[in-house]
Design a protein that fits this description.
Blueprint: E1 6-8, H1 16-25, E2 29-33, E3 39-41, H2 44-61, E4 67-75, E5 78-86, H3 92-97, H4 107-113, H5 119-130, E6 133-139, E7 142-150
Parallel strand pairs: 2-4
Antiparallel strand pairs: 1-3, 4-5, 5-7, 6-7
Length: 156
């Protein structure tokens, strides 16, 4: 079974309605900074699950009235997909555990979000299984999760 597929970078999140309800309820500003047309080489079910988990995480933990920015850019035969959200400051210690199963940065906040603490662990496992680089970085006023997907080389 061949597991690699071509997929347009224009990510189609089937779960949009649930995320739209959450965005409206929390008064979030959502920005899409992806440019259609670039193709990545990855299993579409894997990328869908990764994007859904990262977006769900961003929407749940974004400050009320804050921003979620979903962006894509080409860099060195890869396409970096980055999902940023405004949030309270996260310590370096918390960042070190953020990919761990069942880890929750703020226990009191997780009662409100009904989080299990498994979404980012799923992202990590899928990225490792597909040899996709992944990471997280603290940004002033928020946090950004990213993955680097192999780009399809254009035929000339």
């Amino acid at each position: 079974l061949h597991t690699a597929y071509r997929r347009q970078r224009q990510m189609c999140i089937r779960d949009r309605s649930r995320l739209a309800v959450l965005a409206k309820k929390r008064n979030l500003q959502v920005y899409n900074e992806c440019i259609a047309g670039t193709t990545i080489y990855i299993n579409p079910d894997v990328i869908k699950t990764i994007i859904q988990n990262l977006c769900t995480n961003a929407f749940k933990y974004c400050l009320s009235g804050g921003r979620v920015i979903i962006g894509c850019k080409d860099c060195d035969n890869k396409v970096r997909i980055k999902i940023y959200n405004d949030c309270e400051s996260i310590s370096d210690e918390e960042i070190g555990h953020i990919w761990d199963r069942f880890y929750k940065c703020d226990q009191s906040r997780n009662r409100e979000t009904n989080s299990t603490g498994i979404g980012l662990a799923i992202v990590k496992a899928l990225c490792i299984s597909q040899k996709i680089e992944y990471g997280v970085q603290k940004v002033d006023g928020g946090i950004a999760f990213w993955i680097d997907c192999p780009a399809v080389q254009s035929e000339k």
